[in-house]
Automatic annotation (TrEMBL):
It comes from Helicobacter typhlonius. This is L-lactate permease. The keyword Transmembrane helix applies. The keyword Transport applies. Keywords: Cell membrane, Membrane, Transmembrane, Transmembrane helix, Transport. Belongs to the lactate permease family. The lineage of its organism: Bacteria, Pseudomonadati, Campylobacterota, Epsilonproteobacteria, Campylobacterales. It is a multi-pass membrane protein. The chain crosses the membrane at residues 31-53.
Length: 61
């Protein structure tokens, strides 16, 4: 999870005070890519392998 407080503490701990925005931009790119990847993976699983999802099994029976 990205939180401004965590970023500020991390920057202070490693001596990068004032560089919080750079760290946030760097982290945001990878977080958005990860969210998209997980969303695609979840959609694929739900469409092609629905029997591994407990609710889908209950609805089919």
């Amino acid at each position: 999870m990205i939180s401004p407080q965590s970023i500020a503490i991390a920057c202070a701990a490693v001596g990068l005070v004032g560089k919080e925005s750079d760290l946030f931009k760097f982290t945001l790119k990878y977080s958005l890519a990860f969210i998209i990847l997980i969303g695609i993976w979840t959609a694929i699983i739900a469409m092609f392998i629905p029997y591994i999802i407990p609710e889908a099994v209950a609805l089919v029976k």
